[in-house]
Amino acid sequence: MEQNWEDLINAIVLQAFKDLRWARRRLRRHPGDLKAIWMIEDVEHFLLSQWCEMLTGIDGEYIFRKFKERL
Q: How many domains are contained in the chain?
């Protein structure tokens, strides 16, 4: 049962990374795209939230920095 929760948490964080990557690419091609801007804001808000830290057990700012390094 514990593995199922870990898989879900990993899937949530992975989806956040995919969404952020998509939004950044979209903005490069279409500056001012509101959907992409909102997606970036939503992902940043999630990653820097206490909820993300509670789910992952890792400081959200650390995760956010790692995301930015990989993009």
A: 1
